[in-house]
Here is the input.
Amino acid sequence: MATDLHRPVNTLLAPAPSASAEAPEAAVRVEGLTRAFDGRAVIDDLDLTLKAGEFTVLLGRSGCGKSTLLRVLAGLDREISGTVLVPRRRAVAFQAPRLMPWKRVWRNVLLGLPGKPERAVAEQALAEVGLAERAGAWPRTLSGGEAQRASLARALVREPDLLLLDEPFGALDALTRIKAQQLVAELWQRRGCAVLLVTHDVDEALLLADRVLVMRDGRIAYDTPVALDRPREVGFPGFTELRSRLLTELGVEGGGRTHGGPGATADPDDGASGDGDKTLPEAAAPSGPARPPSRAAAPSGPARTPSGQVRTENPDASPAHPRHGDPS
Here is the structure.
């Protein structure tokens, strides 16, 4: 897997130790990442590793730096210090589909690809998201869900090793959102790429993720695997416990005692929008996955460490992957 190195950087990561046959290689490696705006560090000395093929969800309150981190990984923000190693083949989708209204859907899917790809390439990606019959349509004729699926197709056509999703379901109605989540899960399972999804929705995180991170004060403050069988439902054993734990980490008092259903938000002040810093038209798309059942039990209660350090649930464990066998 080819790697892109971002560095207006001071130091480089040492080569990773050779991985065992059972352990998946890292799709993303970040060390000492800092991004400041007007002297204020939005991302502050952040370290992060994402495994190849892993579906990771990033939660956090508005303004904590989630979308900024995603843009750094996408290569859209290089005014950083630290080291960022990411695959060359990556794609990003934002909450807005960002389709060019003067181009038909299939041409939007191919937008930005090198060379002169044929229409059939776009049609194949559109078929994968259930939009084969809309290839020749104009973007203004698409529903919100169709437009988001076209955005996903634009990512898929790039054959990414890393899919970055910045609240791609945030503007969809409840039923369309559920269908879009299911589609992303299916695509991820089929494609087998690493996915990083930014969201405020705790239930969405638990329905989709292998691993959930909570970002606070510019750093990863909490990290837990989600060892629940797939496909998942909100009422699954272990779901409520994980949900309550995450809401507590997000500062939502009594989060586990009430059930908000799909759409329960991580930010008590802002349940719909992102960090307020998501933009940039360069939108590619995500790919999603719904992994085969993992029989691991739900993680045990959080281990408390001194403030400022990452708290990790069962840090030596990682969700089972069909491609890699049992957790390494």
Q: What stands out?
A: The longest strand covers residues 26-37. The chain is about 25% helix and 20% strand. The first helix runs from residue 66 to 74. The helical segments are 66-74, 105-110, 119-128, 144-156, 174-191, 202-208, 239-249.
